[in-house]
Write a structure and sequence with these properties.
about 500 residues, Cytochrome Bc1 Complex, Chain A, domain 1, disordered N terminus
Length: about 500
């Protein structure tokens, strides 16, 4: 054991020695319009990773327009007025006609019971013709193909609850190409093929939720655990909202949230800071400065007691249990990470040894310290997959028994040390990647206002004591704040009620 610990600590000691040198490789600047850049020099290879972080995600979806933030992921590489079109002037006219046709259709639909059904069919046909005409001007995949032909890797975009991120890597001699293309994404966006992509998003919803037992369970879990906060809606949005999203909705969202002061960009690799600053001024300073979007004011009301929901599914039984917890700015946030590591971090963890290895009642028993995200009060969750012939009720009882035991028994100091060492070593390994470092720099800057929190967070973990873990477990892992959602076979019986916990 001592030898293993020493092996794990060796890279940590080396990292600690070089930590002070890391800041010397960082260059930061903010343009006059508010757009912030973080550059990290790594000249070992002639490649550069770029990560653009927009501080807006699905929690910012307007009421009745859930899924609109996710649409930007699908618009990410559609091109600009100069790239991806056969004739922009004619395409623009066609796009405007699509919206005009849609306006006429919605005007008739909005008449409600007085709407003319035959007229609606005619207007729907006119809309399909208008969309087809606009799509005929599109040169598919020109934007991503241009990037890929210049040696890109990991070209992608993703949408989270609080973020929309665009990223890829290029050879360092293609630096200016990235500045030109990325700036046009925000200066000159074109939401072409919007309704085609809306159909794709709807199909994703069907695959991820309607046809996916875990997706169904997760949707029910979030909608049950949160009564008011936007965390109650999965990032996919509600299907009825998605089906009615308009290109004008995307434009309004873009104008409100895609403002320079709400964006941070990290560039990591073989980059010259002076050259990058010159290009940033040349290409990004043209973005107009606009007010920052308003903060979210909806506060989740206190939970008044335990909640339980059954989801009918013929698939493998599943269960999620979640406990209300404070946001990531709370002083106890690191304690939840350590607690999760002790409970389910690897084959020596509490739940794995008890439920999976020894009693074999579960195929998996995993916890997450922060769910679905951490900027607002959220959940500490446990996800359990029962083993064959072992019921939800049996697993539920064992999970709650183990949590009660965890709250009452002293924390194992060996397990505590293992989690701290593993956390630190994991961060060190992850930072070997330019792309991952670029991602982390933007995330920590946008979340905490300073990328240095990426490193000081490890110190926060190190300061967590066994007493902290037990105190937080006793305070937050309580039935009163718990939500349990599980699957049942159609027509099947619910699990038996468990004394002191299972509702």
């Amino acid at each position: 054991m001592k030898k293993l610990t020493l092996i794990l600590l060796l890279p940590i000691m080396a990292w600690a020695q070089s930590l002070k040198e890391f800041e010397k490789k960082i260059t930061e600047f903010t343009l006059a319009n508010g757009l912030h850049f973080i550059l990290c020099e790594r000249h070992e290879a002639p490649v550069v990773s770029f990560h653009t972080y927009v501080n807006a995600g699905s929690v910012d979806d307007p009421s009745g327009r859930t899924g609109i933030a996710h649409m930007f992921e699908h618009m990410a590489f559609k091109g600009t007025q100069a790239i991806g079109t056969m004739n922009w002037a004619e395409e623009k006219k066609a796009l405007d006609e699509v919206e005009a046709a849609y306006d006429r259709l919605e005007a008739e639909r909005n008449k409600g019971p007085r709407a003319d059904a035959q007229k609606i069919k005619t207007l729907e046909a006119e809309l399909r013709v208008a969309i087809s005409k606009a799509n005929a001007f599109v040169e598919p995949n020109v934007y991503p193909t241009l990037i890929e032909k210049n040696g890109s890797t990991r070209l992608n975009a993703q949408t989270g609850l609080h973020t929309t991120e665009y990223y890829y890597s290029l050879p360092s001699n293609r630096l200016e190409l990235w500045f030109m293309l990325e700036s046009q994404r925000f200066l000159d966006p074109v939401f072409r093929e919007f309704y085609k992509e809306r159909d794709v998003v709807m199909e994703e919803y069907r695959q991820r939720v309607e046809s996916n037992p875990q997706g169904k369970l997760m949707q029910a879990f979030l909608a049950t655990a949160f009564a008011a906060h936007p965390y109650r809606v999965m990032g996919t949005g509600w299907p009825s909202d998605i089906q009615n999203l308009r290109r004008s909705d995307a434009w309004e969202f873009f104008q409100k949230y895609y403002v320079p002061g709400n964006i941070v960009i990290a560039i990591v690799g073989d980059v010259n800071p002076a050259e990058a600053r010159r290009m940033a001024d040349k290409y990004f300073s043209h973005l107009p400065s606009r007010p920052l979007p308003p903060l979210l004011h909806t506060v989740e009301p206190p939970q008044q007691g335990p909640k339980t929901v059954e989801v009918q599914s013929p698939a493998q039984p599943l269960m999620i249990a979640g406990y209300k917890r404070p946001d990531l700015y709370d002083k106890d946030d690191p304690v939840f990470d350590v607690m999760s590591g002790i409970l389910s971090g690897g084959r020596t963890s509490v739940l794995y040894k008890d439920m999976v290895r020894d009693k074999k009642i579960a195929l998996a028993a995993q916890t997450a310290a922060t769910f679905p995200d951490g900027r607002y009060p959220n959940l500490f969750v446990a996800f359990v997959v029962p083993n064959l012939v072992h019921s939800i009720a049996e697993n539920q009882k064992e999970l709650f028994d183990q949590i009660d035991k965890f709250k009452s028994d002293p924390v194992d100091p060996v397990a505590l040390k293992r989690v701290k060492t593993s956390t630190r070593a994991g961060l060190i390994r992850s930072l070997d990647s330019n792309a991952r470092l670029a991602s982390y720099l933007t995330i920590f800057y946008a979340t905490y206002g300073d990328w240095r929190k990426l490193f000081t967070s490890i110190d926060d973990i190190d300061r967590v004591t066994a007493e902290d873990v037990q105190r937080v477990a006793q305070k937050y892992l309580v039935p009163e704040s718990r939500t349990v959602v599980y699957t049942v076979q159609p027509g099947g019986a619910p699990p038996a009620r468990q004394k002191g916990g299972a509702e």
